[in-house]
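Fold it.
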Amino acid sequence: MAAPTTGRQPGRPLQLVTLNTDENKVEVNEDALGRLEKRLRELGASSVAVVSVMGAFRTGKSFLLDLFLRFLKFEADFPQEAKAARQAEKVPRGGEAEFPMPPWITNAGGNLEGADEDSEGFRFRGGMDACTEGIWIWSEPFMRELDGKQVAVLLMDTQGAWDSNMTKEQSATIFGLTAVISSKQIYNINMQIQEDKVENLAYFMRFAQAALRKASAEMERGGQKLNQEEIEKPFQSLDFLVRDWRHFREDWTQEQCMEQMEQHLMRHVNPQKMVENSTAEALHSMFQRLKCFCMPHPGFAIEKETWSGKVSDINHDFLRFADLYVRDVFTDALKPKKILGSELSTITFPMVLRDFVSAFHDAAPVAMSFTQAMTNCTVLLAKEQAMKSFTRKMDEETKKNPGGIEPEKFEQLTRSVSSEVQEEYNRVTIFGSDDTREDTWQSITENLDALQKRYSEENSRRLEKALVAFANISILGLALFALDRVSDWTCDWWSQTCTDLSKLMLLAYMGIFIYVGASAYLILGDRGRIAAAMAGGELWKEMVKLMGVYADLLQQLNFHEIADMVKKAVAPYLEGPAAGAEGNAGSESEKKRPGLKKKD
């Protein structure tokens, strides 16, 4: 295997959110969130996607996330090998051939991450002790291309919801927090989807649905135009991941197994087939995508408390479906995180997380707090979207005019761009009243004014430096002019070579002066004498600066070597005419000598 091609840093789990079950409080771990914020800024991704795994006590969530980690590390470190693995023909299920271990499993060594406290993974171990408390996130985001752009993918591990130590409200808090900040939420269930497991989701779903509908109705009465699909389905993707599934027959193909998964999902969350279907309706109406995926038992060896994480102990049929599932999760099925249609960026993600943790602070979801958190998030995202749109449009225009834009045209440009940004803002969903929308636009206007002032100052500097780009060529023109004058006094009167070089230099510097002068004349005609004078002054300052740089470079050169090189190069041209003159002079003297006569 080739060496890794990326400079990915090693990561570790960070406890992002703490849930104190005794005091019934939910709080953000600011130190962990600060580290994550710093890493997101360093990576420079524009958007973020969050994959979270939640479920009951001891259902193998951390074990699953460690498989995710191994897959993502392999794809990031060995892109060529990963591409070859994706294109490789898979061994069909139902035959005699055993499914080989995929490269992403075998590449990182014989033991799975997370098997001990010193390994790089989400910590798990066999036995009955839980390893996860609160909400954890992997410290190192993984950069992946989603929807044609680079997105920072985060892995999240949650405390076992609905275990014996948590109340219904606390479980709903964990589920609610992961639902609102996740692009894909994986509900880890043992054996099969059961009615109580689906009903566990209903507490948060129903109150969130009621809060959203009440707020949207008030917004529509106020005259706001809403995207009903974004309001009715505010959450993106929910997978029911059924572990230790026992119903795949050995002779079944992969397609037959997938069909059974779909049937199992329909049996438990299809409103048309369920007698009590309110929970199923809530799920279908709140999530844009619902899916069920079943995985066979990974092997009884991993349930032992002494299991060291040896990958060869994992059942090969389990690895077949694990390979299939990780590719589904991190390719077509994963999208950047959105809240009511607006993408969550790496900048706004920490702010949104704080807002929702504050809304769930008492570990009991409240409609009013949830609505306020949604309002805060949509306002924050609308502001960021407006700033990004204005900046992008202005940057595009300024790149087209590197020499600056005339003040009147610049004013027209900023008014036009601001109008376009406002039209885009009017199409964005702001969760709140008309007053909230107006106050938000007022705040955006203030930010746009600050941006406009910055671009105006930059444009003024560009106008003043409209001729600065000609500094190097102007220095060259002056140097050629000086050399031409020197040659007039030194060698033009006797050397044809010098005369020819002088003519070439004359053509060169005259072309340069005409070109620079024409540019200055255009500035004079378009912007007036003051602007032309300022542009000329900036050109002269830049020339003086560059001449100082060139003078420093010349001082570092060995002038004796340069003089010798020049003499050797010029010598053939200088010696040729001199030798010819001496030969002619000798012939004349011979003719004039007396007593020398031609012999017959």
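The first strand starts at residue 13 and ends at 20.
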